[in-house]
Amino acid sequence: MRRLALPFAAVTVLLVWGFGSSALPAMPIRLDIMVSSAVVLTAVGALVWGMLPLRALGRRLPLVALAALPFAVLFVWIGWVPAANVAKVVFAAALGIWIADELERVSWVVVVAAVSAAVDIVSVAVGPTKAILDKGPVVVGYFTVAVTWAGYTYAEAFTGLGVSDVIFFALYLAAAKRFGLRTGWSAAAMVASFLGTIAMAMWWTALPALPLLSAAFLAVNADLLYRSLRGRGESLPPV
């Protein structure tokens, strides 16, 4: 039961905030965005953390993702955004944790961090992510976790975090757990990286989240990664 306490609390926060945030008094816009994002993204991080024991499912984990996916689509379609957020996070976390367990060496995690950051920059600038954003809120709603702001409904204003970003959050967190890295500090740093990206995005229309996410994960584990690579005699595979 103790294992269920954290994910249950995280789901509760996501649902209560999502359905009730519009009833709260609005704050100055930039403060509102940051406070709302801190509440929701901390809950997202807690839910992913609470799903880490599902590593025991091994290669059955994609079944959890497949089970969550239709609920995510259905809830977006009927407009239950907070419930859709929960389903999307469960989907993304299951995939990320499964991928992390398929990585055989810690060096692969470093390569994934570097490559994903570079690809995300290109995707947001000129690639698929930009194309999705150009399609507008309806399409974006299926690919993002929506952070509703205090004092506003989802239809009026929200901040979107890509489902793919949550997948990588889960991947790095599960990799930290698997390879003996700093799991707690990794989670905190990566949530902070999301908030940092959102803060910078106030001056731009959209920014990729993976570069700062990857940098945060590598930064808090840099010494352990170096020792692990050196101790195992590993070298980074060619990219």
Explain this structure.
- The chain has 239 residues and is mainly alpha-helical.
- The protein has ten helices and two strands; from the N terminus they run αααααααββααα.
- It has a two-stranded antiparallel ribbon with strand order 1-2.
- Helix 1 runs antiparallel to helix 2 (29-50) and helix 2 (29-50) packs across helix 8.
- The chain starts with a helix and ends in an 8-residue tail after the last helix.
- 40% of the residues are buried.
- Residues 125-140 and 235-239 have low confidence and may be disordered.
How much β-strand is present in the residues?
A: under 5%
Report the principal-axis shape: globular
Distance between the termini: 43 Å
Number of strands: 2
The arrangement of helices and strands along the chain is: HHHHHHHEEHHH
Percent in helix: over 70%
Arithmetic mean of pLDDT: 84
The biggest beta sheet is recorded as: 2 strands, antiparallel
The secondary structure category is mainly alpha
How many helices? The count is: 10
Rg, nearest Å: 17 Å
Note poorly predicted spans.
125-140, 235-239
The largest beta-sheet arranges its strands as 1-2
From the structure above, extract its key features.
single chain; 239 residues; mainly alpha; two-stranded antiparallel ribbon; 2 strands; 73% helix; globular
